[in-house]
Fold:
Amino acid sequence: MTWSEMQPLLEQACWDTLYMVGWSTLIAVVAGLPLGILLVLTERGALLQNAVLNKVLGQVVNIARSMPFIILMVALMTFTRWVTGTTIGREAALVPLAVGAIPFFARLVETSIREVDGGLVEAVQSMGGSTWTVVRKVLVPESLPSLISGATTTIVALIGYSAMAGTVGGGGLGDLALRYGYQRFETELMWITVAILAVVISIIQFAGDYAARRLHKRGGGSGPLLLFRPLRGVLPGTAAAESTTKTG
Amino acid sequence: MITTSGLTKVYRSRGREVTALDGVDLHVREGEVYGVIGQSGAGKSSLIRCVNLLERPTSGTVTVAGQDLTALAGRGPRAGRELRRARSRIGMVFQHFNLLSSRTVQDNVELPLEILGLSGQERSRKALELLDLVGLAEKAKAYPAQLSGGQKQRVGIARALAGDPKVLLSDEATSALDPETTRSILQLLRDLNRQLGLTVLLITHEMDVVKSVCDSAALMERGQIVESGTVSELLATPGSELAAALFPVSGEATGEDRTVVDVTFHGEAATQPVISQLSRTYNIDISILGAAMDTVAGKQVGRMRIELPGRFEENVVPIGFLRERGLQVEVAGSDDTDTAVPAPRDAKLVKEGAK
Structure:
């Protein structure tokens, strides 16, 4: 296989992966953040204490988390058709990816929120702050570095999941490696996909860690996030980080 | 200004019940600094949290500035609009400062103003004004992590004052600070109390805090208030545990047939040379076993443990002489008067205060 033959395949696969991971990350963050916060707030003794809701949410998250992704994808077929009108292609792969990532991210959010010092919540309550104020001004901003790390982990996990999207014709880098590298013995192409995945994951991890560290430190100069800037909008990683910032 | 009546708080967990507050009646007058002192676990923290209903009392009422807060509370754990509004008029400072690390000093002070719904311009004007008041104007753009403990507490105080409260609650505000910083923070609280007519309710385990800033004090033990009153009243109360703890004097009798007398001087009497008068008038030798002089609540107070030769029966007249002079006299070891010998419990309290 020559490079000119490989190039369009790789390009298409990259776009497919980016499409699936980008959208599912966005959905996971938008839905997982409130879900994670709710998991903490409905706990016994917490602000919105509600044992029944807490149990139900916890169970749903646990079941969704423990489901192997490939099974989730098949199990959700009816739902996928209802949402996208099809069970084949990258749109169809997107639905189970998002559904799988929501509880994943929600658990990470839960852990991050739990780490916020209860004294801060108490302080805001003593000022007359409502539960919503506590969420908006304390829980999210104070756990932001940790939330960004959580989003980074979610993206990396989603890239992993998206490799199985080929099963429903979703395409993507994982699918390419499987079909060409494994089934057709195109070892070269396989190695290139592996390299691309390694580079992409490294960049995402680095950008996520950098943003989290930057926010965590606080107090140095407030200059622009140099490394973060040029990547904005290109990588799903930065998109996720941005959407988290907006929610805060 | 703050009145609690029959305040009770019972914590239930896994079938076990712990009574943190057991019928607490507290009365804090407008414009005073009121200290509640007690050991860990005495219920001080629960008490101060019940005042702004961060903890819901199991029974009893809390009235702040004429408003019955317990009536506003509702049933659920969530605070309704009315209660939140009432809370915004009660400032609170915390032992561990509880500043948001993600916000600058100025933004931390602006937080309660954001909750009150002030515009950006008003917020920043007010915040800078408050930071100036606590002497931290130049740190407005710093993050809490860059401040020392004392500075953090100053920010905490500025933040507590943002809603123009009439009442300030202080939850062990100086317990995480070194003695020097503690003094400066207490001085600040005292100044604010005077300048703004702020009523301050503070809880502490340090006797020094009560000694240096409080007008009134209460001693808490096992969820109950054991003693309370203005500091001068307490000092004038024979056998007051608080007075003894505020003013420990020690010294053992040197022999069997001796009378040990604790004399407390305050007000006018503090300036008179009573001991030498006593010695000259009755021609007796007096030995001083222990003595302390201090300023409590802005007044000079002295306490002395002296020993007179002979048994109590032989010393009735000299002791009468001391009483006549307006001194408070307690005879150690006699049955008819309360003794001023600190019980072991007080000794512990003093020790804790000395840390």
